[in-house]
Amino acid sequence: MLDKLRVVLAGLRTDIDGLQAELEGLPTPEDGPPGRDGAAGPQGVPGRDGAAGAAGPAGASGAIGPAGQPGRDGAGGLPGRDGADGSDGASGVHGKAGSAGRDGAVGPRGPAGADGKSVTGVRLKSNKLFVAIDGREEKAGEIKFPRLAPIVAGGGGGGPRVFIDIPTVHVNSTPYVPGESATLIVDATAEQIVIDLDAAAGFGVTRLEIKKRDSSANVVALSGTVDGGTDFSLVPQHETVTVKRDGTEWWIV
Prior knowledge:
The chain has 2 helices and 13 strands. By secondary structure, it is an alpha/beta fold. The strands form 4 sheets. A 5-stranded mixed sheet has the order 6-7-9-12-13, with no helix packed on it.
């Protein structure tokens, strides 16, 4: 059945192709000259108005007109509250000091002062010193006398000699100022020790026996004028020196 339909369709396609070929072979008719315009017909009824178009852009601003006359002054308002105080300003530069004024007049003379006390007597009893002031005796202090060794026969000159036993002081700090004539046993193990002879003279010291007891390399320095020179030092262990003051200088004796 399908085969028959295919045959029929093929025949129809052939017929259509033939008709199209015949139409293409026919001559094309030529256009004739245009005819005259016909008379104008009556005017038709006007149409309705169209919708309004969109608004155009705003035009440029016009020139400013002349100023009007000023209005009358308004009524005065109530006064406002006082504002807060401002901070203090910086201090100005001090001016130069003025010249000194003249001395004032001398004031009246004051009353006479009380009479001072007078020393009316001095008395020494044993080693105690008593001073009488306006006839009234009071203890003023004690005098320390050096301890004296027994008097022994002297040689050479034939007269007796008196030996004064002076105290022994151990010294290990610097500088050291002797306050009295003494024998100084000095330990310079920790540091150099300075014996201030000039300061000692201010205490009335007139004789010092000084011995270096340690074996360190630190010296024991005597600060002052000794034998007309400046300073003197003890260096080796057990070195000893005795110095005596004549009132002005120290001398090795």
